[in-house]
Structure formats: C-alpha cells, structure tokens
Design goal:
- It is a single chain.
- Helix content is about 30%, strand content about 30%.
- Strand 13 and strand 14 form a beta hairpin.
- Helix 3 packs across helix 8.
- It is globular.
- The structure holds adenosine-5'-triphosphate.
- The site of adenosine-5'-triphosphate has 16 residues, from strand 11, strand 14, strand 17 and helix 9.
Length: about 450
C-alpha cells in the first residue's frame, strides 16, 4: 500500500493511469471537454460498479433490516421546498474583483486573500448560491413546470417511507438504501472526480425508535468505518472526524465524517448523521400525509428518528485508486501496480495464451469460457507476456493465467499472483476452485 503521508505527486500519477488504461475519460473530449465532467471507460465502469456492489452487499444483501430503493432523479419543487433545499442548499459564493475568479468562501484557507491572483480584500460580499439544477418538464416553460434534478438521493427514501413500511412488513429499526446519480451545480468542481457536478452517491436512511438513536448512531459510525478497512484501505489513511457543534446543521445532534488522506490532505468520503425526526416531520407537514409508525405492541405512535450514512461512490472509487497505487522496484525496473482488493478489482482474472498460435488461443478461449460465468475476466493475446503482466498489474487484476505450450499436453496452466508475483502450476480441471480460493471472495 502507498505511504500514509500525503504524496502530492500521487494525484497526477493516478489521473494519468486512469486515462492511459481506460478508467476515466474527460467527458465530450472530442469537443474540447466539458469542465469537470467525466465518463467512466471500460475499466472504470467495472471498478465503480464493484464499489457500488460492495456497498450494496454490505448494506442490503448481508442484512435483514435494510431494503433497497431506486427513486426518480427528477422531482417537483414541493419535495425540495419541504426538505429545506430550496431555501438552504446553498454555498457562499464570492468573486474576486481583481481577477474575476469565483470561490466558495467556506473552502478558502484565507478568506481575505484570493488564491488565484493573491490580491487582498478583493472579494465581493458572499452571495448564497443554490446548488440545485433546475429544468422544466414538458414543452411549456414556466413556474408550474419547474423540476429539479436531485442533489442527493436521500429524499427519495423519506418520501417513500410509508410505501416501504406498508409493503415490507418491517418495523423500526429498519433502513432504506439507494445508490444513484445526484447533481449539484458546484461553484468550484475539481480535483478530478473528487468534486463534480454529476456524481454518484450511496446513501441509507435508518429509521429507529427515538430512544435508540444514540446507540444506532455509534453503531453506524463503526460499521461504515470498518467497510473501508475491510476493502483494503490502510488504517493510517483513514479517520473518523466528529463534527464540532458549530459545524452541525440545526436538526442534527451528531455528524461524523469518514475522511481519507488525499494528496492534498484529509478530506471527506462519507458523512454519518443523526438527523432526528426532522425529515419525516418536514415531509409530513408539507404533504399532509402521516409519516410515522404505530407500534401495535405498545399502542404508541411515533415519528422514527433517522441515522444517515451518506457516501460518494465516485469519490470513494478515486480514494480506493489512490490507496491502491504503488510503484515497486522489480529486477531494476519500476512496476506500477494497483493493489486493489479482489472484490473491487475490475477484472478478477486475465487469460493470456503465451503465443497467438491457434493451438494455444483455441484452448485458452475455452478456458476463458469456463471462467467467465464465475468471474469478470480479461483476455489478451497481444505483445510479449511481460508487457501483458505489466498491463494487468496497472489494472489491478489479482490473477493472470498463462496458457503455454506445455498446457496442451499436461492440461495445467500457470497462475500468477499480482501482489507476490509468485506462480503456481494448476490443473485445468481445478482452475475455478483454485481462482475462487485465491481471491477469497
Ligand atoms: P462537501 O462539503 O464536500 O461539499 P457535503 O458534506 O455537502 O460535501 P454530503 O451532502 O454529505 O456532502 O454528501 C455525501 C457524500 O456525497 C460526500 O461525502 C461525498 O462523498 C459525495 N459528494 C457530495 N458532493 C459531491 C460532488 N460534488 N462530487 C462528488 N461527490 C460528492
């Protein structure tokens, strides 16, 4: 794993690798790019999907108390009026009167000095800039047709609270989880996919009896922190930072951020918040619908309190790449390798026939077909074997399987381990079990 001290050169190295190997491309590149918008290429789409799947597996599949949801991206102003986003989802925007650059006042190290031109006290008064993207539905423009692109996935879980409760037979404590795109008209997008205007979130709202909120808040902080460690993030690059009282939103009685040591310092991957009954009450008042729970055992009706772990999928993917990136000296040469956890690795296995001769490529493709139902595989018959290993190391592929001339006779193949570079000879009829055991999934 890479060093725990922030390495300022790491940023460029990782960004270059992601472009070179097909993880992430600047969006609309042939038209000169579209600022801070990115497309996920053939390898990046696999990695991003694996991050989201690992979250879903831990939050939904391996539990009995969390249910999934996929709510709409477009919604009417009423939702955002009730949630408080129309009034409050703003960042303080300042312009430098000297160089005309725009900044988010709360993100400036020195609120009196322009980081672009160095001018002192050149900022305009801060204006509250609403981050929501607004558009209109249907062919007519006008206030009755306004719609918003969601700036977070969370509200879909609150507005569907009753639907889920009535159809699922769950009772608090239970959660609703969602993964999907969110949109924010960020004043200063940047740092590659760290802050973009279109991004993906992984959020869960956990509804609990009010008296249990404190203990569930502690539970989810630990649970979420452990998720990153279990997927191979080094403990030194990760911390849980409890918000100070003046950082908390008025309805929150506790918020903690999971932070990662990025090349520019500690920054947020996920926030875990104890939100009280704010959201359900706000939507109940605005919609006139009951958003509460009647406990038939105690005959009590109450509005559940909510613990919300809210993570960024795209931002977290970038952190996993940064944590996994390594350069090692091997026999006088530098090898670049991504030590990604096997669950996150885009390809689990690469099948590499030693030569392009049909007597090898034919059986190698049969081997590929044997592995594909079980694992995401790559297949590569170009260039020499050393270059192909280097490529797979840069993609973070945990295992390479070489089909050589001996394989034709002895029905065995060489399995190379990405991290140790050790090679095992494995009979073809045991290969699926061998790969499964090696990956440990
Ligand atoms: P910030 O203070 O960095 O703007 P936030 O505290 O407003 O972020 P939340 O609303 O808590 O962020 O969103 C939860 C998670 O969604 C964040 O921890 C982050 O991982 C992700 N996220 C938020 N905004 C963006 C963005 N513009 N680009 C990428 N990911 C984002």
């Amino acid at each position: 794993m890479s060093s725990p001290a922030p390495d300022p050169t790491l940023f460029d190295k990782v960004v270059n690798l992601t472009k070179r190997r097909g993880f992430v491309f600047p969006s609309s590149e042939i038209y000169g790019g579209f600022r801070s918008t990115y497309d996920y290429g053939p390898i990046g789409v696999l990695l991003l999907r694996n991050v989201k799947d690992a979250w879903w597996r831990s939050m939904v599949q391996l539990r009995h108390d969390v249910l999934g949801l996929d709510a709409a991206i477009l919604s009417p102003p009423a939702v955002w009026e009730a949630s408080g986003h129309l009034a409050n989802f703003t960042d303080p925007l300042v312009d430098c009167k000297h160089c005309n650059e725009r900044f988010r006042l709360d993100k400036l190290d020195d609120p009196h000095t322009c980081p672009n031109c160095g001018e002192h006290d050149s900022f305009t008064e801060a204006r509250n800039f609403n981050l929501m993207f607004k558009t209109h539905a249907g062919p007519v423009e006008g206030s009755g047709h306004d719609v918003f692109l969601r700036p977070e996935t969370a509200q879909g879980m609150f507005t569907n609270f009753s639907n889920v409760l009535q159809t699922s037979r769950k009772k608090p404590p239970f959660g609703i989880a969602q993964v999907g795109k969110s949109f924010r008209n960020e004043i200063t997008p940047g740092n590659f996919v760290f802050r973009t205007r279109e991004f993906e979130q992984m959020e869960m709202e956990f509804f609990v009896p009010p008296a249990e909120a404190g203990e569930w808040y502690e539970y989810w902080k630990n649970e979420r922190f452990q998720w990153y460690l279990d997927l191979g993030m080094p403990a030194e690059s990760l911390r849980l930072r409890e918000h100070e009282a003046d950082e908390l939103s008025h309805y929150s009685s506790g918020t903690a951020d999971v932070e990662f040591l990025f090349p520019w310092g500690w920054d947020e991957l996920e926030g875990i918040a104890n939100r009280g009954d704010y959201d359900l009450n706000a939507h109940a008042t605005a919609s006139g619908e009951k958003l509460d729970y009647f406990d038939p055992q105690t005959n009590e009706r109450y509005t559940p309190h909510v613990i919300e772990p809210a993570a960024g999928a795209t931002r977290t993917m970038m952190a996993f790449l940064m944590a996994a990136y390594d350069e090692e000296e091997v026999r006088g040469e530098t090898r670049t390798v991504l030590h990604l956890h096997p669950r996150l690795a885009p390809y689990k296995v690469a099948v590499l026939p030693l030569s392009k001769k049909p007597e090898l490529t034919g059986p190698a493709q049969e081997l590929l077909a044997t592995l594909q139902p079980h694992f995401m595989c790559d297949y590569d018959e170009t260039q020499n074997i050393g270059k192909r290993y280097r490529r797979q190391d840069e993609l973070g592929t945990p295992l390479c399987i070489t089909f050589d001339f001996e394989s034709v006779d002895d029905h065995a193949v060489t399995v190379r381990d990405r991290d140790t570079m050790e090679q095992d000879r494995v009979p073809l009829d045991q290969i699926v079990d061998h790969v499964r055991t090696k990956l440990g999934l």
